[in-house]
Design brief:
By secondary structure, this protein is mostly helical. The protein has 16 helices and no strands. Helices cover 62% and strands 0% of the residues. Helix 5 packs across helix 8, helix 5 crosses helix 9 and helix 9 runs antiparallel to helix 11. 41% of the residues are buried.
Length: 342
């Protein structure tokens, strides 16, 4: 046991010796909501990462939409591959800035656990339906605090929970590791959504304004390298993680271009209308028939408003499971007729 404990202590010593003075050291965590005995080998941030990877919500990400609903091709980005992309970029930023990679990875892997089926369309629909609103970053924290492990939650550290909650652009994480994920999320989704749009034939690379390509690059590798290099050049040795003004401006322009040419197109809106009808029907049904919810969610309904629990259930669904439940409830099943001739 003492040998195992020395592994954790060795990690503490390595962090103290080699990480930036602005990094979040594992030994200095603000702790968990419920106290636990420390692991003999792993730091708290390493334990959080492992808990997230083995959670049911993480496994479901593989069948949740990123941008294109249920794409037929094998190489379109899903919510899981987006999460892995964010993790890789965020860890690259953390490594370059001598920040805590374990904390960064845990935040990145958990940042989208609360995302809905059908991507941001599903989020907008639940936000419109629920009297308390719906935001996927807040739902991700609810997943790790309440929904996982049959209502017990994962009991993650403050720093991981804070980074998950504040991974959206306009929010401010408490740690620089959280800021790495905040920026990496933007780098990742703009980059791979552009690749998917080109793969789907919605765009050509030449459609992207030339000055954006000149600043960011014309390939995935170039755009990611540009962003990571920009963060390093503007953040090394500082208590900040930020893009340079030229790269930030070009990235914001690319994001606006993607909204105009991909996210808000007639095709995308047409699919969102279908998703809205489906999710709205499920929401209305389960708020009127909470007894038909799965047992875990029925139990939660004793402690939380039924509308919130229905949002919990629907947001936990994968795309194909939402379609399955919709069909099960609303689509008539065929009869098997007895042969009356004989």
């Amino acid at each position: 046991m003492d040998n195992f404990k020395s592994i954790r202590e060795k990690t503490y010593a390595i962090e103290q010796a080699f990480l930036s003075p602005y990094a979040a050291k594992s030994k200095d965590t603000r702790g968990r909501q419920r106290e636990e005995e420390p692991c003999e080998m792993r730091t708290d941030y390493q334990r959080d990462r492992d808990r997230i990877i083995y959670s049911k919500a993480f496994i479901r990400l593989k069948n949740k939409t990123q941008v294109f609903f249920s794409p037929e091709g094998d190489h379109y980005v899903t919510r899981l591959t987006h999460t892995l992309d964010v993790s890789q970029i965020a860890r690259s930023l953390a490594r370059a800035l001598s920040l805590n990679e374990d904390l960064t990875e845990a935040i990145a892997l958990g940042h989208d656990l609360g995302h809905t089926p059908f991507g941001h369309s599903g989020e907008r629909i639940l936000n419109k339906l629920s009297p308390t609103g719906f935001k996927h970053n807040e739902q991700s924290v609810r997943v790790v605090d309440v929904l996982e492990k049959d209502g017990k939650g994962l009991n993650l550290t403050f720093e991981v929970r804070d980074g998950i909650l504040n991974h959206k652009k306009q929010l401010k994480p408490a740690t620089l590791e959280g800021k790495c994920v905040n920026i990496a999320d933007r780098i990742a989704y703009i980059n791979h959504d552009l690749n998917d749009a080109i793969r789907a034939g919605i765009l050509k690379l030449e459609d992207v304004p030339a000055h954006i390509r000149e600043v960011l690059g014309s390939t995935s590798r170039e755009r990611i390298n540009t962003a990571v290099s920009s963060v390093y050049a503007n953040s090394a040795g500082k208590a900040e993680v930020e893009l340079g003004s030229d790269v930030l401006e070009a990235s914001d322009e690319l994001r606006a271009f993607m909204f105009e040419r991909v996210y808000l197109t007639k095709f995308a809106r047409g699919e969102e209308e279908k998703a809205e009808r489906m999710i709205s029907a499920l929401y209305d049904y389960f708020t009127s028939h909470p007894q038909d919810l799965p047992p875990t969610f029925i139990k939660l309904a004793g402690s939380y408003p039924v509308e919130q629990v229905v949002c919990d259930y629907i947001s936990s669904m994968t795309d194909r499971y939402a379609i399955y439940i919709f069909n099960k409830i609303f689509v008539p099943r065929g009869w098997t007729f007895v042969d009356e001739v004989n």
